[in-house]
Design brief:
Length: about 260
């Protein structure tokens, strides 16, 4: 029986042959999909308040402690808004930092210095500078938005005893202090476990580790501790988070430049 009488057979065989190609992901597509899933799982929390201890350590291991309050407001179609208020020690008491993250374009950030009674705007060219003497840069304090990076899946690897995706992220911002970030995201809950930062010369700069994750509202995961180690200057900054609270009724009025001066 001539096979030409059954063109459907050939069509079906052809579709089966190309099906793996149709569903094959590039490393860039997979990296983007992992990031998108991570964001999707942490959407819908509304607003949050938390307390934080910031411990600064110099190369010799000497420590200084700062006590901080932080609040943030989720934005439906843009990056989050956050307000960070320093309570201790006395020389930084009343200092407040306001950040409006944006999915596209430069973030808006302001720092209120009570000794000067002045609000200082952080320019986009200074986002790579250190935040209040810590090993966190201003750009590290921005909320994670999918449009801020391009992506590439690298490999699977275990970290903190968890099976993780390893994804390379390339900043879209030309003023970023980094050429790339290498990020470990666990496969079970899509939480960031570790981030390695590479400077503008593509040399290893810092490593950020997350630990003590706890779940809130039966969905949202937050770490109890974040450790940023600077490999180039030997300094480190530890953040210890406590008293996470969601659904505080915060609104836009709690996040403006007037709220910086009221923060005390």
């Amino acid at each position: 029986m001539p096979l030409r009488l059954f063109p459907g057979i050939f069509l079906a065989l052809a579709l089966l042959a190309v099906q793996p190609l149709l569903h094959a992901e590039t490393a860039e597509q997979k990296g983007h999909a992992i990031a998108a899933e991570s964001i999707s799982r942490d959407s819908g929390w509304g607003d949050m308040k938390a307390d934080m201890q910031m411990i600064l350590r110099n190369r010799q291991g000497e420590e200084s402690l700062r006590e901080i309050r932080m609040q943030s407001l989720e934005q439906a179609n843009d990056g989050d808004k956050s307000l960070t208020i320093f309570d201790k020690p006395l020389d930084v008491k009343g200092t407040a930092f306001l950040s409006f993250s944006h999915a596209v374009g430069a973030d808006d950030q302001w720092l209120y210095l009570p000794a000067l009674k002045r609000i200082k705007r952080i320019s986009s060219r200074n986002k790579s500078g250190p935040f209040m003497g810590s090993e966190f840069a201003y750009e590290d304090l921005s909320s994670f938005e999918i449009e801020k990076y391009s992506y590439k899946y690298i490999k699977d690897e275990s970290v903190n005893g968890l099976d993780c995706f390893v994804v390379e992220q390339y900043p879209a911002d030309a003023h970023s202090g980094y050429t790339r970030r290498l990020v470990w995201i666990d496969k079970a809950e899509y939480r960031v476990q570790r981030v390695e930062f590479y400077d503008r010369k593509n040399s290893p700069l810092k490593t950020l580790s997350y630990s003590g994750y706890q779940q809130y509202l039966d969905r949202y995961w937050r770490p109890e501790r974040m450790d940023m180690i600077n490999h180039q200057n030997g300094k480190s900054t530890e953040l210890r988070w406590t008293n996470y609270h969601f659904g505080n009724g915060l609104n836009e009025a709690d996040f403006n430049k007037n709220s910086l001066k009221r923060a005390h």
